[in-house]
Amino acid sequence: MFPKESIAMLQYPQLEQALKYHFGYDKFRPGQRQIIEDALQNRDLLIIMPTGGGKSLCFQLPALLKPGLTVVVSPLIALMQDQVEALRNNNISATFLNSSLNAYKVRSREEAILNGKVKLLYVAPERLLSERFLPLLDLVKEKIGISTFAIDEAHCVSEWGHDFRPEYRQMKSLRKRYPDVPTVALTATATDRVRADIIQQLGLKQPSIHIASFNRQNLYYEVRNKTKNAYAELLEIIRENEGSGIIYCLTRKKVDELTFKLQNHKISALPYHAGLSDDERSKNQTRFIRDDVRVMVATIAFGMGINKPDVRFVVHYDLPRNLESYYQESGRAGRDSEPSRCTLFFSFSDIKTIEWSINQKTDPQEQLISKQQLRQVIDYAEGTDCRRTIQLGYFGERFPGNCGNCDNCRYPKPMEDWTIEAMKFLSCVARCKERFGMLHIIDVLRGAKNQKITINKHDQLSTYGIGKDKTVDEWRMLGRSLLHQGLLEQTADGYSVLKLNALSWEVMRKQRPVTLAVPVAQKVTWEEGSEKAAEVEVLMQRLRSLRKQLADAQSVPPYVIFADSTLKLMAQAQPQTLIEFGKLSGVGSHKLAQYGEKFLKEIQAYRQEQGLPIVPLGNYTPSLNFPTDTELTTFQLYQQGLSIEDIAQKRNIRPTTIIRHLADLIEKNQPVDLSQLIPLERQQKIWQVLEVLGDIALTPIRDQLGESYTFDEIRLVRGKWRRETRKSK
Ligand code: ADP
Ligand code: ZN
Q1: Which end of the chain is more exposed for a tag (fewer CB within 10 A), N or C?
Q2: Mean pLDDT lowest for which of 349-363, 373-387, 524-538?
Q3: Which residues in 573-606 are b (16+ Cβ under 10 Å) and which e?
Q4: Based on the domain organization, do 349 and 421 belong to the same domain?
Q5: Can you give the pLDDT at residue 33?
Q6: Can you spell out the DSSP letters for 398-409?
Q7: Looking at the domain assignment, is residue 526 inside a domain?
Q8: For a substitution probing ligand 1, which of 29, 33, 45, 561 has the most ligand atoms within 8 Å of its CB?
């Protein structure tokens, strides 16, 4: 129990206030406010935001502020459940209908919808257009109204997207059936073609289009050479990061091997790939989402439809297929905007493997595209520019560089003069008659003894053994760089034979210097630790286990209770009263009431152990001064200029109830203009009586004022009077 204080109403503009009340956040993310304003104007919308940009809120908050039901179309059952659970934990009435429910459950949910008890309904596209569902929608429309159709993962409508679903195509008929219901389409897919397709296929009408930047500032991007130490480095990454992580491998076999290895090193890890049974896959996935297991080792089959917001690191242990998939896969880290890390391990043998599989393709067009894509991945991995500049450039977004949050910006590789080495390398290619690949050239340079060398008599060349002073990796780095800089060529016939060009000869004639960005041994100084940080970490650990306990009791993922960022704020600020607690970002009205006390106790116990001062816990139940849903509905209509009678009629409730709503809205500091409702001098009269008699029942007040005053008028003025008296206290 907590000190008797009142939570002063925060003087936010209205939308921010609603954001804090329902979701606990203080600020909108970039773009969200504008989108929500457009949504409140009932406009069609196309929202393109990267993963973690905060798309859901763009239809969830308007759903709460607008009258009627918002229907959300979402392709994945797991995703639906997650979102509904998260909403319910904020006391928002959301539900879903999909094939996982039995008939009885479906019926009772439908009933709740028709009774206006639900603000957000999630459905799968195939159900939406079924014969049973459309009549229900008709009824909803008639009885309580449909406020919006929100189409999540809208790229599924497009054959050009990466996840085309034919059911999405029928969505257009929805538009025909309910032409006046606004449609909001959301996706993280960036290409122009998909965008245009979404607008066309969903029949969006002059949509307001919002394209957020694809720059994910909280992600640290790095590329490491996959040397013999790669596994040790991987272990270090896992041990150094607190939270969950995903490690992507190219094949099932590699996934299984790596999982086994990690488990042997006492890392809590599970595999995920298409070779496992459905049951096992979904079990592993759930354990990951619930934080029962920390690391998911997976093929790219894993990730679609996972919106675990607190993934702290994504490692590509093998090379990704193309830059777009790399962006999307690595982007599963840090959806909650907390610092997270994306590591790509890059090896020449991976390139070989991928090149080999590209050469197996029979369609020459497909082959060409895959080769281009591989080229882009290599350019990214070998590039010395800001990683963001390269990635965003790929999406057509210009980024000035110097992000300060990628390896190239933080630890710029020193440029060294390698002209002599380049001359040795290229002349060795020439001596071998431009008929061999990189590995053989390096063997010759390093004076290796093997059959290929003896058969070709390459041990008799003048370049044999002149490069013993450099390691295989160093020579390889040079060779790659020469290719990269266009100072050397490589055949694309599957054999990768090295060929010289005009520039190679310039180098050999010493007419062109060669510089190389050499990697520095990467000492991982990713997150600077301090004593304070360590303390915070200890408390974080306690708060985490409390969160896990609460989550398990409700069978929900821990992030549904509080996000990592909110736990961190708790550990840093160590609030001691509910008021302080309620101010943290991520604590909304419901979570404050639900969990505030439990977390405060944990913080207090920690402080007591540490010998830190504590505020004794008193006796206090919080009540945030915020309009209820029904009041907000009235307020919306009132803002649209409807008279009290019209609102009453439209909502099918008595005018007195509407007055009651308005009076409470005034008391709760909402912008209802009293002077439009009651002439000023009548207001003053009522005010005077209130000042004398105080906050008592309405009848004695009316007796004092006389018959010509109505209860409605008194009620309205009393709302304002209460607000002002409370303020002055
Ligand atoms: P998307 O669907 O775009 O990938 P989500 O809607 O799942 O992203 O949001 C990602 C995370 O960001 C969620 O944990 C969500 O609660 C959080 N979030 C959204 N809007 C805000 C905000 N204004 N302030 C803080 N966190 C937010
Ligand atoms: Zn950078």
Answers
A1: C
A2: 524-538
A3: ebbbbbbbbbbbebbbbbbbbbbbbebbebbbeb
A4: no
A5: 94
A6: ---S--SSBHHH
A7: no
A8: 29
Indicate if ligand 1 lies below 6 Å from the C-beta of 307: yes
- Name residue 341's amino acid: R
The ligand minimizing its distance to the Cα of 72 is 1
Q: SS3 of 177, please?
A: helix
Is 635 within 8 Å of 661 (Cβ atoms)? Answer: yes
Whether the predicted pLDDT of 357 surpasses 90: no
CA dist., res. 632 & res. 64, Å (int): 8
Q: Which of 211, 235, 256 is the last residue of a domain?
A: 211
d(CA 277, CA 290): 20
Strands 340-346 and 498-499, how do they pair? unpaired
Positive or negative, the Cα torsion across 73, 298, 391, 352? negative
334 lines ligand 1 (CB under 6 A): no
Contact 336 CB / ligand 1 (< 6 Å) = yes
Whether residues 243 and 180 share a domain: the answer is no
Q: What is the pLDDT of residues 258-290, one digit of tens each?
A: 999 999 999 999 999 999 999 999 899 999 999
- Describe the strand order of the beta sheet including 45-48 as a list of residue ranges: 94-97, 120-123, 69-73, 146-151, 183-187, 45-48, 208-211
- In this structure, the residue with its CA closest to atom 25 of ligand 1 is 25
pLDDT tens profile 531-571: 667 778 889 999 999 999 999 999 899 999 999 999 999 99
Q: Does the pLDDT at position 12 exceed 60?
A: no
187 in contact with ligand 1, CB cutoff 6 A:
no
Q: Is the CB of 596 under 6 A from ligand 1?
A: no
Give the structural domain span for 573.
531-619
Return the closest-CA partner of residue 425 out of 376, 485, 378.
485
CATH code assigned at 429:
1.10.10.10
- Distance between CA atoms of residues 313 and 239, nearest Å: 11
φ and ψ at residue 269, rounded to 5 degrees: -135, 150
Which ligand is located closest to the Cα atom of residue 58? 1
Residue 45, domain member (yes or no): yes
Nearest partner of 53 among 157, 186, 240, judged by Cα: 186
Distance CA 552, CA 274 (A): 28
Closest ligand 1 atom to Cα of 27: 23
C-alpha to C-alpha distance for 323 and 709, rounded to whole angstroms: 72
Lowest-confidence region among 9-23, 198-212, 525-539, 660-674: 525-539
Token readout for 183 is 């449609």
pTM for this structure? 0.73
Q: Report CA Rg, the chain.
A: 32
Residue keyed to tokens 């209770």: 561
